[in-house]
Design goal:
The protein is built from 12 helices and 10 strands. Strands 1, 2, 3, 4, 5, 6, 7, 8, 9 and 10 form a 10-stranded mixed β-sheet that branches. Helix 3 links the parallel strand 1 and strand 2. Helix 3 packs across helix 9 and helix 3 packs antiparallel against helix 11. The longest helix has 22 residues.
């Protein structure tokens, strides 16, 4: 009886000495084995979607949980992100977001969440090259010819984007600014619909993430005039840069980050970050990302937060320069 009492007292003292570890362990035990939901605030067929689909299985294996990917597009991504920030901070609801996430404050008057304060950054996963493409109906074979067409007929050619104020919209606006040309903007609800209408000739041109348009380029359904990167992309070396065609100021890049809702514990962030690093370091995911034309970076959570803040300032300036009116 005495030995049992002593053992019990020692056990209680050990528990009292490690309350944080007990709490985190209990929180993880409560969610272990449950499905992890990855919300994508974009449509199927987008660059972010391609990355998520490529890494979904590996991420599930790294977490030891089933991963379900759910597209919730609309309002330039606000609908999906709003769903994320309203979720419980239990590590079961995450999201992959793009540049759009930090553009929101500059283009939306009454944003229903704080892009920095209402999320928990996990990692900047990587970056995606952006490609300027035109419909096969547009009689331009390179960027110089296209700029000349736009200058000769202001307003004749229109361009599509994945939504007002999105990175694809601003990337097109930047091209207009660099070339001193004008085109009418036609916003869509996601990348998939805009690509479909560029292929059919319903709209004349647009800027799209390479992973979302590469197949259509190779099939000849759209014509790629440039990549907006400083150098050619290994996954599509046939596409020239804007820089080498004489438009040195046209450089813009898409990026993708993993985030959770506000309130994730340090232990949860550490576990999730490790899982993303493991998943995106597997040979199959690295190969898939390379084929898509993406570059894997895998930043720390702290670096991701710093990136969000600096990018928010950068895009605020671009929105103002492009004359995009907040709605």
């Amino acid at each position: 009886m005495v030995n049992f009492t002593m053992q019990r007292r020692q056990a209680l003292m050990a528990l009292a000495a490690t309350p944080v570890a007990l709490c985190c362990s209990t929180a993880w035990t409560q969610t272990a084995g449950q499905t992890v939901r990855i919300i994508l605030p974009v449509s199927a067929g987008s660059g972010v979607d391609a990355i998520a689909r490529a890494a979904g299985n590996a991420l599930g294996q790294a977490l030891g949980q089933t991963v379900v990917i759910e597209n919730l597009p609309g309002a330039g991504g606000v609908i999906g992100t709003q769903t994320l920030v309203r979720s419980a901070p239990d590590g079961l609801t995450l999201s992959l977001v793009s540049n759009n996430h930090v553009i929101y404050p500059s283009v939306i008057k009454s944003l229903p969440f704080d892009p920095v304060g209402d999320i928990t950054p996990i990692t900047i996963v990587g970056s995606s090259p952006l490609v300027l493409v035109v419909s096969p109906n547009v009689p331009a074979r390179d960027l110089r010819e296209f700029a000349a067409l736009l200058k000769a007929s202001p307003g004749k050619y229109n361009f599509a984007s994945s939504g007002n104020g999105t990175i694809l919209h601003l990337a097109a606006e930047l091209f207009k600014d660099v070339t001193g040309t004008f085109s009418t903007h036609i916003p869509y609800r996601g990348t998939g619909p805009m690509v479909t209408d560029i292929m059919s000739g319903q709209v004349d041109w647009g800027v799209v993430a390479l992973p979302a348009i590469r197949g259509q380029i190779e099939a000849g359904r759209v014509r790629a005039l440039c990549v907006a990167t400083p150098n050619r992309v290994p996954a599509a070396p046939q596409i020239p840069t804007a820089v080498e065609q004489g438009f040195g100021n046209y450089v813009v890049e898409g990026w993708v980050a993993a985030v959770g809702p506000k309130g994730l514990s340090a232990e949860q962030v550490k576990r999730l970050h490790a899982a993303f690093v493991t998943a995106f370091s597997t040979p199959e995911v690295k190969e898939a990302m390379a084929k898509q034309g993406n570059v894997i970076t895998l930043s720390t959570p702290e670096a991701a937060l710093s990136h969000f803040k600096s990018e928010m300032v950068k895009y605020a300036g671009l929105v103002k320069k492009a004359g995009v009116v907040p709605q």
